[in-house]
Amino acid sequence: MSGIQNIRDGLTGNITKIIVIAIIITFIGSVGWAGFFSQGNINVVAKVGSKEITNTDLSFELSTQQFTLAQRFPNQDIDEETLLNLSKDILINKFSVLNFLDDKEIVLTDEFLYKQLAQEDQFLENGKFNKNRFDAFARSNGFIPSDYLQRVREDLSINIWRQSLVSSSFVTDKEVLESIQLAEQERDITFLKFPLKDFKDDVIYEEADLKEFFNDNKSSYIEPEKAKVKYLLIDAESLKGSIEVSQNEIQLEYEDYLSGFDSAIRKSVSHIMLNITDTRDVDSALQQLNLIKDRISNGEEFVTLVSEISEDEGTKDQGGSLGVTDGTLLPPEFEEALNLMSEGEVFGPIELSSSVHLIKLDNLVQPEAESLESRSKEIKNNLINLRSEELYVEKLDQLSDMAFSLGSIDDIASEISEKITTSDYFSRESVPESISSPSVLDFIFEEIQEGNFPQVIETSPLTAVLLQIDDFVEEYQLDFDAVKTQVEESYILIEASRNSRSYIDQTLKELNEGKTLELLSSETNLDIETYKNLKRDSSLLSVQAVNEIFSLPRSKAGDIFGVSFTQNGDSLIFRLDSVKEGSQTLNEESLKSVSNFLNQQKTISEVGELQLKMQDSLSIVRVD
Fold first, then answer.
1. In this predicted model, what pLDDT tens digit does every residue of 273-331 receive, in sequence order?
2. pLDDT in tens, 584-597
């Protein structure tokens, strides 16, 4: 797939774009952390070999992780200490690799970086990279140009290092087949189930035992702090019903759409590619493609020759298609030729840095603006969305001012003719769903209130709540009589579980010394059960039980026992009776998928191991 990747990633600089954008986002988000770190004067937070990790590095990484975690876990607050430790660990991994690359004298030159950055239009002038534009861009985003370039250098270096590891990792066909056999392996077991209920029935106790248990576990019997609140929900969605959009407004928006519509002709393009290799130089590749071009002139189908000749695995099965270009997406050598070609024409060979191509202009596509009728609904919805957001912001401002001036949510509701909701008492674990958000919980249970004033709290970009605490009850210790039933249940459960595990351990020891399951069944009056052809993905037992069964050595089948506990506390004692090898035959596509998955997992493992070895070989000093 290297051909299409070279053209679309390498030559258009997608990797570089991602790194450039990531650094910009990190800078914008790092302002708050900059204030956090300015409280001290220690600039170095860790030393990794010859590398120093500075507060600036840490503030950028904190912002990156904060942004990433917010995307993956919205509406969840991340503890600052956890975020700090995570960011430091990631930076130590990163700088361990950079230290390794420096020791090996693997350095990306400024010229190489400028060539990659030249894929970004904003750094070009008259089609060429302009360093002044780059420097201006860096400064406009608060960077010293040399620092900005260094960050790009570091991230590209690590990316190239990782890609080289990915490219060099592989799994053999034998490993794939062995993994499939293990995955499809089947096992037969015989087992006895020991219900926890039987052990509960045998627990003997007096009230003194319960009181002692209560006194030892008082922290488990505390009534949590609870609040009762009054609130009013505000959201942009509910404001849409009051918004009207005229036909004249839709017409004006449509005219703006027409004025900005790009009617430039698009070109659908396909290609045949030959790589330049150690055994095929440029001249040989050019000569071979000229012969292919003659075959096309003599009537052979381009698509047929793509399948026969092209070495671009990424496009070979799509007839060599490179997609549609507006004149900027393909290499300049392609775009210049396409400007002179007619529909259906084949041109080339064209020489690039590591490959030679024939290109075909498949189709000319003339974009057509949508009609007013077809766009009206979308325009109307966009205008309603925009105005509802504006009204939402205005209402937030209004309620914030009134919360300050009136001081009572009842007075505010009366003033704006809205109905408020009054909750029942609730704890942090039982908050009403309509106001359940970290910011609301923090306001109620964490923030120290100086006077009980209404507060406008934004719960998402377009939703908020006006809230006032009506009453608050502090947590308090429950007495024994109030929780006697709970104490009794907990005491019995713990004692029964302890007795159960002790009994199972002793029984397993006796089985391993020669006792049979059949005798145990007779003594306990429990029925022997069997499961045949049990597989790793079986739902008959818990995941833990299945894992225990498949962890037993196959060489001792028939004479080895294991134990597993279910979620409800029941116990299983099982004997591994037999093992059958998996025999499922996969088609070529499925085998390839399994191979790719195993290779991916192997690569992740190898990268992790290599980074750990790098760290073990380095002096790493954390500065608190």
1. 988 888 889 899 999 999 999 999 988 999 999 888 898 888 888 889 888 888 878 88
2. 677 778 888 888 88
Q: Respond yes or no on whether the N-terminal peptide bond of residue 349 is cis (omega within 30° of 0).
A: yes
Given the structure tokens 């912001």, which residue do they identify?
Answer: 393
Q: How far is Cα 61 from Cα 30, in angstroms, rounded to an integer?
A: 9
Query: What single DSSP character describes residue 280?
Result: B
Token couple for 418: 């809205």
Q: Name the token pair of 428.
A: 């942090």
Calpha distance 528→330 (Å, rounded) = 70
* Matching residue, tokens 């039982």: 430
7: CB partners within 8 A, 6+ apart: 322, 330, 331
- The residues that bridge with 269 in the sheet, in sequence order, are 323, 361
User: Which of 70 and 483 is assigned the larger pLDDT?
Assistant: 483
- What are the tokens at 18? 């991602």
Tokens encoding 228: 């009762």
Coil, strand or helix at 189: strand
Structure tokens at 342: 């007619």
Distance CA 561, CA 549 (A): 9
CA distance 577 to 554: 9
Tokens of 430: 């039982």
Closest CA to 364 of 273, 271, 264: 264
Exposed (0-12), middle (13-18) or buried (19+): which is 566, by Cβ within 10 Å?
Answer: middle
Q: Are 357 and 290 in contact (CB under 8 A)?
A: no
The alpha-helical segments, DSSP class H, found in 298-437 are 302-309, 313-316, 332-338, 372-406, 409-416
Of 30-44, 111-125, 224-238, 266-280, the least confident: 30-44
Torsion of CA 163, 165, 167, 172, to 10 degrees: -150
Q: Which of 426, 417, 459 shows the shortest CA–CA distance to 230?
A: 426
CB contact burial 503-529 (16+ within 10 A = b; e otherwise): bbeebbeebeeeeebeebeeeeebeee
Q: Which two tokens stand for residue 27?
A: 């800078």
Question: Is the Cβ–Cβ distance between 574 and 191 less than 8 Å?
Answer: yes
